[in-house]
Structure prediction request, 250 residues.
Amino acid sequence: MMRHSKTIHLSLCLVLLVVLAACKGGANNNTTTGTTGSVRVTDLTLGRSVGGDKAVTDRTDSFKPNDTIYASVATEGSAQSATLRAKWSFEDGQLVDESTQTIAPTSQARTEFHISKPNGWPAGKYKVEVFLNDMSADTKTFVVGN
Amino acid sequence: MSIFDGFGKKKEEKPRADFSNVQSGSSTTAPAAEAPRPPTVEPTSGTAGSEQSYTVVAGDSLSKIAKRFYGDANKWPRIHEANRAQIKNPDLIHPGQTLRIPAA
Prediction:
């Protein structure tokens, strides 16, 4: 009986450890945002269009060669001045485009960056990396196919 | 087919994609930040058209600075060349850096 009780205790401890480890892993997965001062990037979404609130209305990570590609960046917090930069790259890191937007957020805000190419995007894998005050804040990958 | 077919042949390099005509833009729901302070331009001598110095501010790039001083962003290598000692990577300049701006 005593041995049985000890086994149950050990099993409970093991379960607790597994649960704790899982929780820790989950928290790490959420640390994809960057923080600078009191402003932080909370979300980066890709799509084919944005609304007046600069949020993506046609979310996707798979585009056609003639699509305009939008990246919508959500920020929280306030600052007199913060610089968001979107760096778009192709395959092995070839620079596609880089643009910046300086904002003075007072609370939640959204900023969209978009790129288009009149004669169509080459098929392949792309990446957009968003920097907040020159510190990498979030990254998304997407593909262009026919 | 011999298993040695292709051995020693130079691997064909994939041609680089051309992104020269990419168009980009951005907009935001956040209030606009205060206009950036005017560049600190200090002529190093009294003569017009001489070398100047410029202190980098947040959001600057060599092409932006070239556009500001020469009216042509493609002239950034001139600034890079004049500041080789402190700019190892032309994509990476830092606010507060003081750059030499050669005469146009």
